[in-house]
Amino acid sequence: MVMWVFGYGSLVWNPGFHYDEKVLGFIKGYKRVFDLACIDHRGTPEHPARTCTLEKDEEAICWGTAFCVRGGPEEERLAMEYLERRECEYDLKTSVDFYKEDDPLNPAVTGVMVFTSTPDKVSNKYYLGPAPLEDMARQIATANGPCGNNRDYLFLLEKAMHDIGHEEEYVIELANEVRKVLAEKVTPVKESRASPVAKKSKSNVPTAHQILPHQPEAVSTTI
Predict the structure, then answer these.
(1) Tally of domains within the chain
(2) Alpha helices (H) along 107-209
(3) Which of 87, 89, 158, 177 is flagged as catalytic?
């Protein structure tokens, strides 16, 4: 038996489970959005983080990574148990076709599982829905949880998409807006009185290439 799962968020850089094959590619008919609440990893119930989910869009494609587990029923069970704990805010498992860059018309793999969420605030308590870019940026800039802060999740996704050669304008725009919020929180210091440490504080807002995972193989974050 073989199990395939598609990662479009933190699974791209931190799968956290044993797999036998990793393939770069994309799925069709979905776009990445930061419309899902995370209250136990990168946020709290009082101040939820915003993390990725997928929104249906017939014209869109979403780049990410497909992982294959071939080790038999026990390996599949362990991988699924881990993923279901990690992706507890996602209420749907959707089956999709997965495409590779060298053949964008014919699926490389069919029946690939992807964790998604119902876009309805009534039936899905974790669905936040869309918001103005500035509002999302302020929420992401300030949310923190047991596994780290929300902004690192976004910056790591930005870096991961750059590393696989498929940067996404939406992710870059949101990350830059978060950097603006973080820069606003840095108190200006006059050059004549600034100590070397104070001067360095002006450049403390991380770029996509300065941020590294806290625990590369153990961080529990969302897809």
Answers:
(1) 1
(2) 133-142, 150-163, 169-184, 196-200
(3) 87
